[in-house]
Amino acid sequence: MRKLLIRLGLAACACAATAIATAPVASSVGTDVVTYHNDNARTGQNLTETSLTLSNVNASLFGKVTGLTLDGKVDAEPLYLSGLNIPGRGAVDVLYAATEHGTVYALDAVTLSLIWSKTMLVGSEMPSEAVFGCGQVTPEIGVTATPVIDRARGVIYVVAMSKSGTTYIQRLHALDLTSGAELFGGPKLITAPGFDPKAYEERSALTLANSQVILAFTSHCDADPYNGWVMSYNPATLVQNSVLQVTQSGKRGAIWMAGAGPAADSAGNVFLLDGNGTFDTTLNGSGFPINGNFGNAFLKISTTLGALSVSDYFAMSNTVAESNADQDLGSGGTLLLPDMIDSGGVTRHLAVGAGKDGHIYVVNRDSMGKFNPSANLIYQDITGAIGGVWSMPAYFNNTLYYGASGDNLKAFPIASARVATTAATRSAGTFTYPGTTPSISASGTSNAIVWAVENSNPAALHAYNAANLGQELYNTRQAPNSRDSFGNGNKFITPMIVNGRVYVGTQTGVAVFGLLTGPAAPTNVRIVPAH
Fold it and tell me: Which domains does the chain have, with CATH numbers?
């Protein structure tokens, strides 16, 4: 395979706009992917894909077109802007990728040339090593969480971890989309009373909600002491607005969510699942834990006036036992379903989450159910339908798609605002730990394809007919002579699909899949950072 080395300097800096972006899927010039799983509801669907169809996604016409080698592992989902005006280049489709070596790249998605790269390391710093012997993110920790883009402001927000000697550092960066230059006086040190930057990493994707940048931190394995931290920052100044500990007088309760970002509704309410930790089974008069400890719960967090506070929640009747057994909710991500009308004509605002216990919890976002020691008083509690979840679902066309650990990828129809209790279709094969987080491409409701990455050695990309998961259209193992191989598995990888391409984070960079234009072997492109 041919290898190409690309060395290009930074583009000129552009001035940032001041409008507030709301993270749309489509821009005025094409399709953008500006946040984890496509939107703040975390549906994972791109409904403007016209190039990839049920008839051309097969091993003869579709495959790996490029392997991008960057300076480290890519755990964050790549992001994409269509037709961005780059000084000296004009309108360019831009792919953004961030590595665990602490580098953010902006690449021309058509020519694969480097527009800019920016290290998140300052001075002689290095990326953090795997702290406390935890092997969940190895061999180094730089940028783990998927960044978020505000196109109107002209900025991509990034959280990075680094180390200088024995000092560990967490920073929030705001980078100019066209040049990578630091904006708004950044980077900003992430600090809070009691927050030890060594003890945490930002795994959950960043969220833009209610004119705030929302961060949520996890621990390194279960290396005590730690708590569950959520922070909000002003996107125009990087000033910290608010800090929330979800186990404020207890312990643990970290926000893992398999890299999924907290979901957010149009009112700016943020929804997340937190991990095993202290939960107060004694409630106050409003039904909230008396000491403010929400470990192992489904949380609704208000962001009104920039202040973070738990405004509602659901906790399982056996939440304490589950935490003690490390069988918590926090291994999965949340998804907000679109408004649905039930059999009685009532419009329902629902959210879905699942964790290690294999229940699909469907909550009413207007009244989540809180805690009852005798029963789970929620909208729906679906048992026995899936295995344990270390991933998040996708949603398309009144169907919920789950890929639990050791389980088939399954499709659950939704009718009259009720999720089916058994899958209508499923993949023939199963997905080893941690399961899979599917993504969906479609043109409206036509040519809908479910994409899923298998964390195996070697890893595999699968494509299924969304209407019937029993029909597999393609997987990388079908290609001749390992043509489409992209290395060994990389845990918690979410495929991103846009403009006829499928982008997959790998152990060494990003694998790019698309329609094959000829018989030539795929080109491997090594991108050398400009810094």
Answer: 3-527 (2.140.10.10)
